[in-house]
C-alpha cells in the first residue's frame, strides 16, 4: 500500500497537528494500512481456534495505532478510519483456516455509523466473525446499539466484550450486552500465578460466563507462569506474546507449546500437591540466586538445587545476598494437600509459610507449592 501524497518521509518524527487531516484522509481510503493477526489458543487442545485482527500503519512514519485512532477522533474521522481498518482486516477472510474465527475491534459509539454499517453490508453473511466492542469513550446507554447488535447477530456474527474486569464500565458491558465472548483485561492476567485475589476474580468471571453461555478469553499472557495458572483455572481461550505475536495470516502455534497444553490434564478437584505445583527460578548457588534477584527485582523466590536436580532451599532476596541457606521442606508430587499443610506447620516460625519444595518420585525438583494455593484448593474442594 502506498503512503499519502505529500506525507512525511518514513524516517520523520510524529506528524505535526497540521499534517493529520491529510494523513487521515489517505488512511481512510485504505492507503498505507495493513492488518496483523494474533492467534487465539484453545488451552484444552493446544490448537489455534481464532485470530484477532489488529490495525497496522506501515505506510507512514507514525506507526502507533493508538495515535492514529486518537487523531481520528480529534478530527471527526473515527468512523471512517475504523471502517478502513475493518476492510483491510477482512481482505484475508476468505483464506481463514477452517474452524477458526476472526475477531474485529469496533468502538461501540461508532457501531451505528453508516461507515461501519456499510462494512457489514459489503460482507453479507458474517459467520465466523466476532465483533469485539472496545470502549474508547463512555457509553451511557446501550439501548441505541440494540438494533445494530441484533442485525450483526442475525447475520451470523458473535459479540465480544473487551477488558472485562477493568472497572465499572467493563462490568456494565457484561450485564448490558450479554456477549458470546468475554475478554479478561490484561491487568487481571498479569502475575495471576502470584495473586490469589486475581485468581478468585477470574474464577468468578468464568462462573458468570458459564451461566450466560459465553466463553472467556485471557489476553496479554506473557509468562509461562501466567499460562499455567490460567490453565489450572479452566480458562478455555488465551492469547498473548508468550503464545504468539501478531503476524501475517495465518500463524500457527509453536509445536512444543501446543504439546505442553495438550498434555496437561484438567483438574476438577485439587487434592494433591501435583494439582497446585508451580514452576520456579532455580540456581546452583546462593551467589547466582543473588544475581537472579538483581536481574529481576520482581522475583519473590529462587530455588537452590544440588546434585541431580535435588532441591535444597527456597531463598528470598535477603537470604541470597547474605548467602544464608536454610534447608527447605520437600514433599512428593502425590502428597495429599492436607498432609502437606500439616507438615508445613511443624516448621520454625520464620519458615512456616515458605513455599514447599516439590519433587518427583526420583527426588528431582518438580516445582514449588505455595501455602496460599494449597489452602485455597482445600477450601474449594470442601465446598
Report on the architecture of this protein.
The chain is of the alpha/beta class. It folds into 2 domains: 247 residues, EAL domain (TIM Barrel), CATH 3.20.20.450; 109 residues, CBS-domain, CATH 3.10.580.10. The chain contains 14 helices and 14 strands. The strands form 3 sheets. The chain has an 8-stranded mixed β-barrel with strand order 1-2-3-4-5-6-7-8, surrounded by 4 helices. Helix 3 runs parallel beside helix 4. The relative contact order is 0.09. The N terminus is likely disordered.
Number of domains: 2
Give the number of helices.
14
CATH fold-level name of the largest domain: TIM Barrel
In the CATH hierarchy, what is the superfamily of the largest domain?
EAL domain
What is the structural class? alpha/beta
Helix content: 25-40%
Radius of gyration using CA atoms only = 25 Å
| CATH class descriptor name of the largest domain | Alpha Beta
Describe the protein's topology.
Layout: H1 20-28, E1 34-42, E2 47-56, H2 65-74, H3 78-90, E3 101-106, H4 114-123, E4 129-133, H5 146-154, E5 158-164, H6 168-177, E6 181-184, H7 186-189, H8 196-211, E7 215-218, H9 224-232, E8 237-238, H10 255-263, E9 282-283, H11 286-295, E10 302-305, E11 311-315, H12 317-322, E12 330-332, H13 337-344, E13 356-359, E14 365-369, H14 371-381
Parallel strand pairs: 2-3, 3-4, 4-5, 5-6, 6-7, 7-8, 9-10, 12-13
Antiparallel strand pairs: 1-2, 1-8, 10-11, 13-14
Helix pairs in contact: 2-3, 3-4
